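Dear support,

I submitted the protein below through the web form. The confirmation email said the job was done, but the results page showed an empty box. After a refresh the structure appeared. I'm attaching both so you can tell me whether what I see now is the final result or a partial one.
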Amino acid sequence: MSTELRNFLSLSYDELEDLNLKAKEQRRNRVPLDKVREDRLKYLTDEKRIKALTVLFTDLEGRLHMLDYDKKFLLKSWDNLTFDGSSIRGFTAQRESDLRLGIDWGAFYWGPADVFGPGKVLVFGDVIDKGGTPYSADIRGVLKTYADDLYKKKKYTLNAANEIEGFLFKGPDAERHYHETTKSTRPLKCSALWASRTRKITRKSRLRSLKLITDTAKSSRPLIRSSFTS
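What the results page shows now:
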């Protein structure tokens, strides 16, 4: 299909970094939500190359869910979005499936077009119960509410990050073969390898320290000897 008539947003990585850092600075300075929302809506209206918004939220297990909305539709209905909560594990029952999805305009991100596709931007959503309160199974929303309360009461800033844990496999078909020594198909965790390496380094460091103390104790310089034995 020809792309000559398309004009979708596709930014360089330098431009992405600049835009995302400016948005991060707004969050860090706690710019009022009304001002952030006004800026984002104006940007979406003026930027004709954006065709869709991807709204993200997480379930009870931390799994990320994404909903794509046409930009023109979202600009008209951003305050009245709903989705089927019964399709998300741990959310509502089928008989009471509808949940609302609020837009967290502060959590607005520009993603690389080669990963997410051109003409899109990302924004996180807050899951809202029928009564208009934050949904209790929205783990991100619960954490956000807790962080906001800490700031209001004690001026604490809560910093959170993902824990990245990878796996090492021996070749592309490692899961089909037994490991040579353990006869196991389980992958080796990076964290386990790192812990093993750390223990080896620690033992070597301890042996070097003991040798240094021993050599110093044999020395005739009392000042250095006393510094190690005190």
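Response: this is the final, complete result; the empty box was a page-load delay. The chain has two domains: 13-154, 165-230.
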